[in-house]
Amino acid sequence: MSLIVPPTGFCPNLFTLRMQVAQRVFSSPDSGSEQVIDRLNDRWLLSLTLPNRLHADAAVIEAFIASLRGMTNTVALYHYVRRVPRGSMRGAPTAQAAAAGAQALVLNTTAGATLKAGDMIGVAGLLLMVATDATANGAGVMLVQIVNCLRVAVGGGSPVTWDKPTAPFRLVSPSAIQYIPGHSPEASFDFVEAVG
Fold first, then answer.
1. pLDDT-based confidence at 84, cuts 50/70/90?
2. Same domain, yes or no, for 60 and 13?
């Protein structure tokens, strides 16, 4: 299994990122009440569409698709609209230790740094979305609520990626390049975050 690098010019004109939550729901046949169990194994589903291309440019995308070898290899992808936080956090932030299953992180950054709801960060190989606005205190400590559950424990001092944080994804759609006279039309891809 290899990590494949997207080709130059891999820039979607349509992009969707959504979370798939692993959960089980049990309903009472008598009262109709429900119980939901969260399996704490969230993963991202990502869909994107690449724009029309000339045949020569489409050949590069065709080679990229083939190099993924179905679901065998992975590609590091990020949120193509929010490549950096809307908040002000920059520099070299680190995370304090957090247990697997946690839905909050404590970050060490600069005093007054902010993250906004929807900002993406990366830590311990995970792509995480900020749930609510957060501001670092005067000592640079920031409590960040996240929408994901941490799948793995985060070690103290782990670096936090804010510039194009990525996660490995597997191709799950039968994507292909079509050729028509003069150009190749849009190509659509569906990916699922690779776990484990």
1. very high
2. yes
